[in-house]
Design a protein that fits this description.
Length: 408
């Protein structure tokens, strides 16, 4: 079997190369930053501050990022984001390599990264439909996720080697280089002009984006479910998962095996999505994300590690499939001139209570116990997605060879 058809399109090849290379650098950076902060005497609290610092500017600026993506040339927004990240990560690498780095340098770089993501996130969603044929949007998203997941497997390993043999500074320098190479590929994309209307303020565009978002019931229902997922199931997996592994399994080695299996599951489902095009994509998206339930129950239920690993792979595959089907549906159904703004509300709704959820799950687990938190999260997860599965507006979104009237 030859390469996916979308890779025969020059514009998408350049975009795929840019996204994959920057994802590889980002995967290196996550590990490198952790060890860099610790190497300069930073505490666990400092490390938490660094990783949380990018959330605030992302939340504050993402609606402006959506307006920018609909007003301005999308290629230039992505190019500017890559160049800003090149400078930020390059400066951080230089501070480390010259021995002057302090924790506040990492916080500042994270703030810059969050601001860049606020603009590049909605723009990335909106630019893709202009690079491939309408029938190839889902395949294009699948190819992008395969590249991203390979980067997440290889990137930390490469960073680990660099950190072990040299210093975290060189891994961050490689990350800066990855954004520069990404910018070169982005510069080769075709122009993607926004729609700038004379006399219309940015605030008016934010409001019209809200109207576009709320006018599609299937959109805001799905985004509400994403917000709930980010605040419940995701922290259960990534905050309580390591704790459960330490108490019930074989500690860090078992959890590493689970994470590896999740990476494999996420990678494998990308190939399945080349051809699986469900007739009701949002129903399929809502159903497959329920694969998290057997995984967390297997974790807390003390099942053999082999079953936990298999459930973890299926859970991650379901999450990636759900995300791919959702984003493809959004790109296919929402008109291009407003897609960045609608996507910005998707980003905002998904991220808004994520930090609170992570903090609350960790706090409550110590006071009321792991099992109760897991069972409550599973209950909320099942009820919310069960309601989505019977929602007429969600079920009404169907894949077809010609556009259908949008369900409200």
């Amino acid at each position: 079997m030859g390469p996916p058809g979308v890779l025969r399109v020059a514009a998408f090849r350049n975009y795929f190369a840019a996204r994959t290379i920057s994802s590889f650098g980002g995967a290196m950076s996550t590990l490198a930053v952790a060890f860099a902060v610790l190497s300069i005497g930073g505490s666990a609290a400092a490390l938490g501050l660094v990783f949380a610092a990018g959330t605030v500017p992302a939340l504050v600026l993402v609606l402006l990022g959506g307006v920018a993506g609909d007003r301005w040339e999308r290629r230039r927004i992505l190019l500017a984001g890559d160049l800003v990240m090149t400078l930020a990560q390059g400066a951080l690498a230089l501070a480390l390599l010259t021995g002057v780095a302090e924790v506040w340098h990492f916080v500042a770089a994270a703030v810059v990264g969050g601001a860049a993501m606020a603009f590049s996130g909605p723009t990335n969603t909106a630019i893709l439909p202009g690079l491939v044929d309408a029938d190839d949007v889902q395949q294009a998203n699948s190819v992008l996720r395969i590249g991203s997941n390979i980067s997440k497997i290889v990137g930390p390993a490469a960073a680990g080697v660099l950190v072990a043999l040299t210093s975290p500074g060189w891994a961050l320098a490689a990350d800066a280089g990855s954004f520069l190479v990404s910018a070169l590929f982005i510069s080769r994309l075709p122009r993607s002009r926004g729609v700038v209307r004379a006399g219309v303020s940015v605030l008016s565009d934010v409001r019209s984006g809200w109207q576009e978002f709320t006018s599609r019931r299937w959109v805001w229902l799905m985004v509400l479910s994403f917000g709930g997922y980010q605040a419940t199931m995701l922290p259960v997996v990534f905050v309580l998962g390591p704790v459960i592994a330490e108490q019930e399994l074989n500690g860090a080695s078992s959890w590493a095996l689970v994470l590896s299996a999740r990476a494999v599951g996420a990678l494998a489902v990308g190939f399945l999505l080349f051809r699986w095009r469900p007739h009701r994509p949002l129903v399929a998206s809502t159903a497959v994300i329920l694969l998290d339930v057997p995984f967390v129950l297997a974790l807390v239920g003390g099942l053999p590690i082999a079953l936990v690993v298999l459930a973890g792979a299926a859970s991650s595959a379901g999450l990636v499939a759900a995300d791919t089907l959702w984003e493809s549906t959004l790109q296919e159904r929402v008109p291009g001139p407003v897609l960045s703004r609608v996507s910005s509300y998707d980003w905002l709704g998904s991220m808004a209570i994520n930090p609170l959820g992570f903090a609350l799950v960790g706090f409550l687990a110590e006071s009321v116990g792991l099992l109760l938190i897991v069972l409550v999260a599973v209950g909320v997860h099942v009820v919310v997605h069960g309601l989505l599965l019977v929602s007429p507006s969600v079920r009404g979104v169907r894949r077809a060879s010609r556009p259908l009237p949008e369900p409200m």
